[in-house]
């Protein structure tokens, strides 16, 4: 039932729903025909990402480089460093991170999927790439064609991979994935030797390495880690005793690299700490890391909102008066977790400003206190002013670590969450 208020009934103009017509001046003919400027497609393309949208990610290559080098200093040569660049390098951009990390001394790359490996190959990366699990058997040809090694744990997969290699006149190098207690993937530690005996007849298969993954390397409770470590150690000894060369032996993830140097073996797998985050509080004692990612925006709207008026969906926040409400163009679609609505600070003008109201899909708001404080210049927020949404700041706690803590998750999920709608600017 439609209700008519003040006699207003809506416009009744007959509208043409064709954009070509909407944008056309063909019918506004009163004017004389005149010279008009045609669009230049190259110039349109050249409008940069931060001019198209006032929110973006900055990735500091020198931080990645620093984290690789600082970690390498803790390794005894010739222990290798594998840069884990799965999940688009934890949201930082796989190709750029892989290039930076390998230039800084990483010699192996770790991915989670075939397509992640292919992306690196197509970008010209020539280092060994280990996929940290098995893809479906249907995809073995892609592994071989793009020279991506799988971490194998089933007989069927090993055979499919080896047969395909044979067919194409290639070797089928692989790492053996060993389950020492995480119970995710892998051949059980006490069945590794019989697995190798079962598959080793195949002339194409070549064992290049052995790995396991720790479930609790970041925990203050070390008993489970020790059990996994001992099982792995025993497993390696039994593989060697059975006459197999285990190849490159590796088990340490970020937490384990810094906490347990005795398990560096032939290679370590650097994931979250490559990006500058500590996987456990006590690793701060062993290494200094620099976060590589920061999130930036520019103000797109400034409004004086009268006292008690609400802001955003649900109006959970009400203006206390004497504030300006500023809008920035990023929201939960971009990775600003909606659960954090009203809980986080941004850095504006070197001070903390509180995010207020529900975070929307594409935008969110923050509050600027306009009351005068002795000894402090009253702020004057303007459209276009830059705001640090997340990252390292000397006076404001807007770190990725804080976001992760407030969202009851880990830094991995926060950085990966910054979506591909956000431009990534490499510095
Ligand atoms: C993701 C992953 C890593 C890296 O872990 P971080 O804790 O991020 O360092 C290492 N090894 C395997 C098998 C993984 O899946």
List the helices and strands and how they pair.
Elements: H1 19-22, H2 41-45, H3 49-52, E1 55-59, H4 61-72, E2 80-84, H5 86-90, H6 94-103, E3 108-111, H7 114-122, E4 129-131, H8 140-145, E5 148-152, H9 155-167, E6 172-179, E7 187-188, H10 192-199, E8 205-211, H11 223-241, E9 248-252, H12 254-259, E10 267-270, E11 293-298, E12 301-304, E13 310-311, E14 317-318, E15 323-328, E16 345-348, E17 351-356, E18 364-369, E19 386-390, H13 400-406, H14 411-417, E20 423-426
Parallel strand pairs: 1-20, 2-3, 2-10, 3-4, 4-5, 5-6, 6-7, 6-8, 8-9, 9-10
Antiparallel strand pairs: 1-11, 11-19, 12-15, 13-14, 15-18, 16-17, 17-18
Helix pairs in contact: 4-6, 13-14
The chain binds pyridoxal-5'-phosphate.
Keywords summarizing the entry:
20 strands, alpha/beta, 8-stranded parallel barrel, binds pyridoxal-5'-phosphate, 5-stranded antiparallel sheet, 14 helices, 427 residues
Rg computed from alpha carbons, rounded to a whole number of angstroms? 28 Å
- Uncertain ranges: none
Q: Which small-molecule species are bound to the chains here?
A: pyridoxal-5'-phosphate
Instruction: Give the CA-CA distance, first to last residue.
Output: 57 Å
Strand order of the largest sheet: 2-3-4-5-6-8-9-10
Number of DSSP E strands: 20
Mean pLDDT figure: 95
Count of DSSP-assigned helices: 14
Indicate the percent of residues in helices.
25-40%
The biggest beta sheet is recorded as: 8 strands, parallel, barrel
Shape: globular
The chain-level structural class is alpha/beta
- Beta-sheet strand percentage? 15-25%
């Amino acid at each position: 039932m439609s209700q008519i208020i003040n006699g207003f009934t809506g416009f009744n103009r007959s509208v043409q729903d064709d954009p070509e017509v909407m944008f056309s001046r063909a019918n506004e003919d009163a004017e004389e025909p005149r010279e008009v400027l045609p669009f230049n497609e190259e110039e349109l393309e050249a409008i940069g990402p931060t001019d198209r949208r006032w929110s973006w990610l900055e990735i500091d290559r020198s931080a990645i480089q620093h984290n690789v080098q600082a970690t390498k200093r803790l390794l005894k040569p010739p222990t290798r460093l594998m840069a884990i660049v799965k999940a688009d390098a934890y949201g930082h951009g796989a190709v750029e991170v892989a290039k930076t990390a390998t230039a800084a001394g990483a010699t192996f790359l770790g991915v989670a999927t075939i397509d992640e490996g292919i992306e690196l190959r197509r970008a010209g990366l020539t280092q060994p790439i280990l996929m940290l699990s098995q893809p479906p058997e249907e995809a073995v040809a892609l592994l071989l064609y793009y020279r991506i090694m799988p971490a194998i744990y089933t007989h069927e997969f090993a055979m499919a991979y080896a047969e395909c290699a044979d067919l194409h006149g290639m070797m089928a190098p692989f790492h053996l994935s060993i389950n020492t207690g995480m119970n995710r993937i892998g051949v059980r530690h006490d069945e590794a030797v019989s697995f190798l005996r079962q598959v080793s007849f195949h002339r194409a298969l070549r064992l290049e390495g052995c790995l396991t993954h720790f479930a609790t390397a970041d925990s203050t409770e070390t008993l489970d880690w020790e059990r996994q470590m001992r099982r792995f150690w025993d497993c390696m000894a039994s593989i060697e005793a059975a006459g197999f060369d285990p190849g490159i032996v590796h088990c340490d993830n970020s937490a384990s690299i810094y906490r347990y140097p005795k398990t560096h073996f032939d290679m370590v797998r650097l994931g979250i700490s490559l990006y500058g985050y500590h996987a456990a509080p006590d690793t701060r004692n062993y290494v200094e890391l620099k976060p590589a990612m920061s999130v930036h925006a520019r103000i797109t709207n400034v409004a004086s909102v009268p006292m008690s008026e609400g802001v955003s969906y649900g109006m959970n926040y009400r203006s206390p008066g004497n504030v300006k409400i500023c809008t920035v163009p990023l929201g939960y679609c971009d990775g600003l977790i909606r659960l954090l609505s009203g809980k986080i600070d941004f850095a504006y003008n070197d001070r903390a400003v509180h995010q207020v109201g529900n975070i929307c899909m594409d935008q969110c708001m923050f509050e600027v206190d306009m009351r005068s404080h002795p000894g402090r210049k009253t702020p004057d927020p303007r459209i276009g002013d830059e705001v640090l949404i997340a990252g390292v700041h000397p006076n404001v706690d807007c770190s990725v670590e804080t976001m992760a803590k407030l969202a009851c998750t880990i830094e991995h999920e926060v950085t990966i969450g910054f979506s591909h709608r956000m431009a990534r600017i490499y510095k």
